[in-house]
Amino acid sequence: MNEPTRLNIPEWTVSELSAALKKTVEDAFGYVRVRGEISGFRGAHSSGHCYFALKDEGAKIDAVIWRSALARMRIKPEEGLEVLVTGRLTTYPGKSTYQIVIETLAPAGIGALMALVEERKKKLAAEGLFEAARKQLLPFLPERIGVVTSPTGAVIRDILHRLADRFPRHVIVWPVRSPSTDPCAGPISSSSRAAAVRSRICGRSTRRSWYAPRLRA
């Protein structure tokens, strides 16, 4: 390139060039679906956000999950877990890097899902949670039913409607924030009302439906 041609090249500030690159990347890719292994995950930041990388045998891309998206995820990120994610590709001008802002995350295939299930089973077994001595029979006709869920969501409305329609009983609600990673972890043991209730439903909502994952005696 000769000197006059070089002199005619438009001049950019660093911020202008970074903004142009950001727009180009976001316009060209938008939402993407990516398979990779989680690397560098050390748990959620104090802000509640998660920062790590997705990698395969040939490349690595930075990733972030905002706190609000993390709260909606049934499967949480774990170091070394192979996942399939969807999100927005963008750039981070402060470090001249690009990253994926993850909105959904799932184990990559049935093999990864089964490996995750087996790992959880081993962890719970090591805590003695599957021991026969800890199991209790559900009462045939409970006098009171405890429900651990959000007091304002669709879950409690549906539970109360079904109970009133099919099996009227006194209901005690333990309010928890929804969505929650595990609505049963904490509120029951911390409440003095637990001793009065032999049957407890732990309900958690999803975007389109709700499910009651545990009925505890």
Question: What would your notes on this structure say?
Answer:
The structure is a single chain. The protein is of the alpha/beta class and 217 residues long. Helices cover 29% and strands 32% of the residues. It has 6 helices and 9 strands; from the N terminus they run H-H-E-E-E-H-E-E-H-E-H-E-H-E-E. It has helices at residues 3-7, 14-29, 67-72, 109-126, 154-166, 187-190; strands at residues 31-39, 50-55, 60-65, 82-92, 97-107, 144-149, 170-175, 199-205, 210-216. The protein has a 5-stranded mixed beta barrel with strand order 1-2-3-5-4. Helix 5 (154-166) links the parallel strand 6 and strand 7 (170-175). Mean pLDDT is 80; it is low at 206-217.
